[in-house]
Amino acid sequence: MKILGIGSRINHEQFGKGVITNVTSSEYWVTFIDSGLETIALDSSFEIIEAAENEVDTISFYEVETTLKHLLQKWSDVSEIVPIADKWKGGKIILEPGQAGLASKEIPIDTFFHKIIMVRDRLRVMEQKINSSKIEEIEKIELQQYLTRIYGTLTTFNVLFKSPNHNFVGEKSK
Description:
Layout: E1 9-12, E2 16-23, E3 27-32, E4 36-41, E5 46-50, H1 61-75, E6 92-95, E7 105-108, H2 109-132, H3 137-153
Antiparallel strand pairs: 1-2, 1-5, 2-3, 3-4, 6-7
Helix pairs in contact: 2-3
């Protein structure tokens, strides 16, 4: 049995004329003129109107999904889920004023951590915008150095991250 490629045109007894739009290991995805998208087994009976050779799509849904996630993370405010270290879950930050008689302030650590993640994500978006901008290279380098220093300043908060691969990284010592 010869597998037809994407773009092949067929005439199916039940669905009529259509074009193969995807091929999996067991079926064709065919967009039919009258009935829309249908899946039919590779060994189904149909007339081949025009065969497209070597046009089988070899990219998987997983690869498309992974690529889309990467693009969204790179170019939008969509942030990945970053877990807080287990020991901090449900904890709180207490801010004690240096002057007597003033009230302290308690903040749920999860809320504080979320704000830190938002700052990091927005810095990443800013970094991408700088990299893709039309400003002079020397200005890009200067702005990148500022961003690196900002990341370095934020390394104090690395204790909150569950996984070290989410940590802030500033300049590496040589």
